[in-house]
Design a protein that fits this description.
alpha+beta; Methane Monooxygenase Hydroxylase, Chain G, domain 1; Alpha-Beta Plaits; 2 domains; 8-stranded mixed sheet; 3-stranded antiparallel sheet; 9 helices; globular
């Protein structure tokens, strides 16, 4: 790249930075971090462990935020002078440094859109197989792997709470994802997903359309105001299925909770004890009720209706087409990726950024 072209690109990125700089308010953010540090150094800070962990997470997230934007500002300030002083052999190295900071800036700018009440929360992700038979079950398995790979790229922690398999794939799965802004990023994935491909389960190798529903739920903390009355809850225990080990499927440790007013059913079976599974199931149930509140603008859970998007034609948010051409298209934003293999390997940032910017 020529010097003038690189300087022009740096100038364009600087203009983008100037547009968001005032909204960053790094001085205020540093003051907030200092206040959190004072709380962390106070006697008895760890007496309330849940509160202490949250404060520690908030301080770490704030420090990462400030450090990231200070690095962007410093690099963008120094790049023009480096370009002017460089010769032809050095310009390619500066070009690579520019592309690196541009990528960091784009990711950091996207995070600025995460200002919702629950965006910083962790996530309960549930996958449910829809219409399409064996292909749909296989599609659900592909989606599960996709989200696990995406979480891995973000250095987020994942824990499988429940899995139900068939001979050809996955009937359903529930996992908890823990990471910075996990709900804010993943809320774009909530809805019905559609796959179009030549079916490996069809003797004639015909084109098949299949569906899977993905639910993205913000994890509810223990001190939530969302209360569930005992009379509205049915608790069933049963023996876990799966590969077993450590008494997982040798005792009646699995728990199924049914919220009777809406007939919402939650199952957890991957923990060793019945109590652990019940606690995990209650966390998932409360998260599902909160998500319904958000979708229906209800102030109380008593106002909720048992509506749910149909897991079939006409309700999809995104289509993954493998035949007769290759294309993944989000129908809400019109964002497209012509490499489904990369998408299935966890490359979701483009879809997420387009969704956040539009909303």
């Amino acid at each position: 790249m020529e010097k003038n072209e690189l300087l022009e690109k740096i100038s364009d990125l600087n203009k983008k930075f100037e547009k968001v700089e005032s909204a960053l308010d790094l001085a205020k953010k540093n003051a907030e971090i200092e206040s959190l540090r004072e709380k962390m150094s106070a006697p008895g800070f760890w007496n309330d462990q849940e509160s202490a962990k949250q404060i520690s997470r908030d301080a770490a997230a704030g420090e990462d935020f400030v450090k990231k934007w200070e690095e962007i500002a410093s690099t963008l300030k120094s790049l023009p002078e480096l370009v002017e002083l460089s010769d032809e052999t050095e310009i390619s190295e500066i070009e690579q440094e520019f592309y690196s900071i541009e990528k960091i800036f784009t990711a950091a700018e996207t995070e600025l859109f995460l200002s919702g009440e629950h965006d910083r929360k962790n996530v309960i992700l549930k996958i449910s197989t829809g219409n399409g038979g064996q292909d749909a079950e296989d599609f659900s398995k592909i989606l599960l792997r996709m989200y696990l790979r995406f979480a891995e790229t973000k250095n987020w922690k994942t824990q499988i709470l429940e899995e139900s398999f068939s001979d050809s794939g996955l009937k359903s799965a529930t996992l908890e994802i823990t990471g910075t802004n996990a709900y804010g990023f993943l809320k774009s994935e909530h809805g019905v997903h559609r796959l179009i491909r030549l079916s490996p389960f069809n003797a004639k190798n015909l084109r098949q359309t299949s569906f899977s529903r993905v639910e993205i739920l913000p994890v509810i903390e223990q001190d939530t105001d969302l209360e569930i009355e005992e009379k509205d809850l049915r608790v069933d225990v049963f023996r876990s299925s799966g590969c077993g080990g450590q008494s997982v499927n040798t005792t009646d440790s699995a728990v199924r909770l049914t919220y009777l007013p809406l007939n919402l059913v939650v199952t957890c079976q991957n923990e060793k004890s019945q109590l652990q599974n019940k606690m995990s199931a209650m966390k998932v149930l409360k998260s599902r009720l909160l998500q319904l509140q958000l979708e229906q603008n209800a102030e109380k859970i008593e106002e909720l209706r048992g509506e749910q998007m149909e897991n079939s034609f006409g309700s999809q948010i995104r289509t993954y087409t493998l035949q007769p051409y290759k294309l993944v298209k989000d129908h809400r934003t019109d964002f497209e990726n012509t490499n489904p293999d990369k998408v299935f390997d966890g490359e979701l940032d483009g879809f997420i950024e387009a969704f956040l910017r539009k909303n």
